[in-house]
Amino acid sequence: MHADDLLKDVKDLPETWRGLTNAYRIGGETALKKMRNMRGYDFRPARDISYEEFFRRLSEVDLDALASQSPDPQAFRKGMTRLFNQFDIATESSTHGFRASQGASHQLLDILSRVKLGRKVKGVEVDKDIFDAAGNPLGKRRYDAELGEPDELLDHKAWDPENIDTYLDFAMRSKRAGKAADGKIVLPSDVKEGQLFLDLVLMLRTNDPKNVKWVFDPRMAGKEAELAERILGLMQKGENKKKLMKALGIKNPDDFDDLIIRARQKLPEFISVSAY
User: Fold this and answer.
1) Domain residues of the chain, as ranges?
2) Staple 67 to which of 43, 74, 76, 222, CB 3.0 to 4.6 Å?
3) Taking Cα atoms as reference points, which of 147, 21, 38, 154 lies closest to residue 87?
4) Neighbour-count burial of 161, counting CB atoms closer than 10 A to its CB (0-12 exposed, 13-18 middle, 19+ buried)
5) Number of helical H runs and strand E runs in the chain
6) Is the CB of residue 37 less than 8 Å from the CB of residue 101?
7) Which helix (H) or strand (E) segment is 61 a member of?
8) What sections of the chain are H helices per DSSP?
9) Rounded distance, CA 229 to CA 236, Å?
10) Quick check: 123 pLDDT over 50?
11) Pick from 145, 131, 139, 141: which is nearest to 215 by CA?
12) What is the pTM of this model?
């Protein structure tokens, strides 16, 4: 389908037209098809942003120029295409499809708001290798955005507040990345560490720590301190504690108390809520 056919029924909506044109310039017809899928759906993580307002904000930032100013324009455009590909709820009626689109809208709205505030976006959908305190590989991580001046890695969470405990627990646990050869033996290469575990190691290691932020949508406003306490509680649970001690090179259990103190100091920076 030609781009003109994809746009013809929204030309009477100036904000929508400009926003979709902006998406097309960086993501091509794939971006147009995915973004058009949003129409008629309650995709809004904040529940108070209209369809027209969403595209008005999309029209205000020149995404193609943003890519050209990044350290790796080709990787930036590829990352934006990955982001647009998540707007798929019109073709996938499942709960997963809705949540993917909801998360993508939150991610895009937050990135746009940071650009308007003058933040430098170095990349979108950025892959990073994560290492423990001794330099051993722990796994790979894809971050929603990488900012510069100062450097920050962002992960956007459009989580339902009533299910926060389930999501946090899942983000802390190791998962099997695939079936073992005989169905019983799980090799180290079959294990994928949870996002929260990897980010805690990245933030709390003394050797080259990184600034990581989990950016929640506005539904989590006022719950930041509660989130921090729940994460601290997860860190101190049996297996989680053992894994963190090993990854961070802590041999004396008493030194883990110092880690919890450091984590308590850093978590207010790790947890944030986007105001768009």
Assistant:
1) 1-94, 119-276
2) 76
3) 38
4) middle
5) 11, 7
6) yes
7) none
8) 3-7, 14-36, 51-59, 63-69, 73-84, 95-116, 164-172, 195-204, 224-235, 238-247, 255-270
9) 11
10) yes
11) 145
12) 0.87
